[in-house]
Amino acid sequence: MLKTTGSRPSLVPRAEANGRETSQSNAVSTAQEQKDKEKLPSPIIVHGFFKDHLKLTMTLKNTIGSQYTIKYTKYNTNIYTRNKRDWTKLREVLKNDGVDFHTYTHKTAKTHAFVLRGLHREPTPKEIAEALQEEEVDAQEIYMRGTNWPAYLVITNRTYTLDKLEGIKCTLNTKISWQRHINNKIFVQCHRCQRWGHATANCHARVKCVKCAGDHLTRDASTVMAITQPTT
Fold this sequence. Notes:
The protein is α+β, with helices and mostly antiparallel strands. The chain folds into three domains: 44-107, Alpha-Beta Plaits (2-Layer Sandwich); 110-180, Alpha-Beta Plaits; 186-232, HIV-1 Nucleocapsid Protein, CATH 4.10.60. The chain has helices spanning 14-37, 53-64, 84-96, 125-134, 162-165, 221-228; strands at 44-47, 68-72, 76-81, 101-102, 111-117, 141-145, 151-157, 170-171, 174-175, 177-180. A hairpin with a 5-residue loop joins β6 and β7 (151-157). Residues 1-12 have low confidence and may be disordered.
């Protein structure tokens, strides 16, 4: 005969019990679906290889645990993380250690680009941004393209669409029009390390001048040459 101690367990109606089980099952399913929907971060691509593989694995373990994968290619060491938090932590560690690497913008931080036409060349990007702010458009960056009747490249977060912006037909008391920006570049070259295939904003490698291969940005080449040019 089985004996029990303590108070008698309460009896739960079958329908209520089934309802609780269903709710718990739905909650677990929703959490799993949310986890599955999270896009894996882009790889962190280290330029070259680490001399001490054991030290690399210890650094990774101390930084993000065991949730990572390493892939060696012909020229690089690719490190794959499981989530944005680990991806961000590892980027900071590699930056602080002076490791040459690049990666790509995370999906949640991607931006949209639109072309604003119709304005004169006199308004500054700051003035345009303030005018758009009054229309509830938060422009992250604005660049002027052209001179006489310029087009302005407006960078926003990924929630803005062309349909939304086309509702704004006038700003700074001037009629305007909007277009989606189309990037026609087939190949992207980094203006920091001069490698192909990634943008400067996501590069943390040592700088290299495309003119002289010196350790300075290309835009500073003329200044460096003027300083180092021997006087006669």
